[in-house]
Write a structure and sequence with these properties.
The protein is of the alpha+beta class and about 425 residues long. About 35% of the residues lie in helices and about 20% in strands. α2 packs across α10, α5 packs antiparallel against α10 and α7 crosses α10. Keywords: DNA-binding, Restriction system.
Length: about 425
């Protein structure tokens, strides 16, 4: 698609803006808006101030999605907490100013209070709010760089935000540009939404295939029997029902070899079991594992972090290590333990609300259905082939989604910086 440029440009005098359309004015945000920071009643969580009926926003409320508008909240305060925070009317533009997710804007659709990790833009003059939103969204990376110049956790103060330069077209043109971006990004978002649904369908198909195959086998003509276990259901009549500990050795030997690669939960990809290389340095001692051991994430087991080890190493933190016995094919065991049926029954046993963990004793006594070794291998080989095909389809879809997101980002950047001319007829 060919885009039109403006007839003439000028040097903005601001390095990060570069050349801008000749008729646009370069201004600081504080020239057309007051920037104020929120606050939090102390001590945090004190029921004297919290758990009331007044919305109270935190950084996480603004960073959970890519939407323009924020229409939900999860935290509340009471009237007693109002003196320690700030109350703003509906349709106020907000910006996160603290932590790794600073520089994220949102327009809040309801009256609310907000904490000191968020800034608000009030008393806007001669600036279209939606256009300012897109300008701020385009500046997220720049804000992160600015905030990272200090020490410790990155933070933006209201002075940095207020002194941010923006190139402003005349107000009627601002409205046209904001409408154009809304329209074009909505079209892109619809495509992303459809592709995301498609990827989710294939992910569900993959999980259904694993569930069906590890509990039913490959031969659909064999006689079945009732396992009398709710999460398993019927299984082939020749399969054996026994406890998890009858099939696996629970490894708990502390590792005393400091040269071994340390593996933590963040190294195991959720629901796929793939190994993820990170630069994280893990502290403390762990459990030594060898090739073909299975590493199972016991913290938040619903994440289904199940890794079939490809090397000798040191499992750190909330990981159980299981060694398949000689009559258990390791890859089949991984498919079994990563299946959603297995994960669901494990997750139902967890203890702890914020940091749910499964106990080793629960897993040890869990009944599982096992075919003979040669059938385990056949099932694993079949699932390797089928899941690889599905993964390739999902990867292709995700690549398309990534390209659309990049297109969206580039479009916003080029429009709000004047590289693309927008007219009322577009």
């Amino acid at each position: 698609m060919k885009f039109e440029r403006y007839p003439a440009y000028k040097d903005s005098g601001v390095e990060c803006l570069g050349n801008v359309p000749e008729h646009w004015r370069v201004r600081r945000i504080k020239d057309f808006s007051s920037v104020v920071r929120g606050g939090s009643p102390r001590p945090a969580g004190d029921l004297k101030f919290y758990e009331g009926d007044i919305p109270f926003l935190k950084v996480g409320d603004l960073t959970s999605n890519e939407e323009l508008y924020l229409s939900t909240y999860t935290h509340t305060i009471k009237k007693a907490g109002l003196t320690s925070t700030r109350f703003i009317p509906r349709n106020t533009l907000l910006l996160t100013n603290s932590g790794a997710t600073l520089g994220i804007p949102k327009i809040c659709t309801f009256p609310t209070t907000f904490n000191d990790g968020i800034a608000a833009f009030i008393h806007l003059k001669n600036i279209h709010q939606v256009l300012l939103f897109y300008f701020l969204k385009n500046r997220t990376k720049w804000y992160l760089n600015q905030a990272s110049l200090g020490q410790g956790q990155p933070n933006l103060n209201t002075e940095i935000i207020g002194n941010t330069f923006i190139a402003c077209p005349p107000l009627p043109e601002q409205k046209t540009i904001a409408h154009y971006i809304d329209t074009k990004t909505a079209q892109i978002d619809r495509k992303i939404g459809l592709l995301t649904q498609k990827a989710n369908l294939y992910s569900n198909l993959k999980q259904s295939l694993i569930n069906e195959t590890v509990t039913r086998g490959l031969d659909k003509s064999v006689p079945m029997k009732d396992s009398e276990i709710d999460w398993i259901g019927e299984v082939p009549v020749h399969w054996t029902l026994n406890r998890h500990k009858d099939n696996f050795i629970f490894v708990n030997k502390r590792c005393d070899d400091s040269t071994l690669t340390k593996v933590g939960l963040e190294n195991i990809e959720s629901k796929t079991g793939r190994f993820i290389t990170t630069e994280t340095e893990f502290d403390g001692d762990g459990i030594e594992f060898v090739q073909n051991d299975i590493l199972f994430g016991k913290l938040r087991p619903y994440l289904a972090k199940v890794y079939l080890s490809e090397f000798r190493g040191n499992a750190i933190g909330d990981i159980f290590v299981y060694r398949p016995k000689r009559y258990i094919y390791p890859k089949f065991a991984q498919y079994l333990m990563i299946s959603s049926r297995y994960i669901d029954v494990i997750n139902s046993s967890t203890i702890g609300a914020k940091m749910p963990r499964v106990s080793s004793s629960f897993i040890a006594d869990l009944i599982v259905a096992m075919p003979l070794f040669h059938e385990q291998k056949a099932i694993a080989d079949y699932l390797d082939t089928k899941t690889t095909q599905i993964d390739q389809i999902i990867q292709t879809i995700n690549t398309q989604i990534k390209k659309l997101k990049e297109l969206r980002k580039t479009l916003i950047n080029d429009v709000v910086t004047g590289k693309i001319r927008v007219t009322e007829h577009q």
